[in-house]
Design goal:
rod-shaped, mainly alpha, 106 residues, 6 helices, 0% strand
């Protein structure tokens, strides 16, 4: 069996998606994906593109190579920056409070 198909099947199982529902979602006929799994076939690039487009949390690198994690990091770059800004602001407040306890140089 193609390791790419195994990984896609692993994702389907992880998400709790029925194979027939998955097949419909990517526009392939009923039984097609299951048949490919059973017959040790591969998946076409067009179908792989559909899968990655319709399931954006699925990591393309993981599907294709097995490297990395199954799911993409869902936190966006902007959210990360905003979280870091909040941490910095909190640290600045802590520093300001602690500075009051440092004796002034004479």
């Amino acid at each position: 069996m193609s390791t790419t198909l195994k990984r896609i099947k692993e994702y389907i199982d992880f998400k709790g998606i029925r194979i027939s529902t998955f097949e419909k979602s990517i526009g392939i006929s009923n039984g097609s994906f299951g048949g490919q799994l059973k017959k040790n076939k591969t998946i076409g690039v067009d179908k792989l593109e559909s899968i990655l487009r319709l399931y954006p949390d699925l990591s393309a690198e993981w599907v294709l190579t097995g490297n990395g994690t199954m799911l993409k990091d869902t936190e966006s770059y902007e959210q990360t920056i905003e979280s870091l800004r909040k941490v910095i602001k909190a640290q600045e407040k802590t520093i300001a409070v602690l500075e009051h306890f440092i004796p002034a140089k004479q």
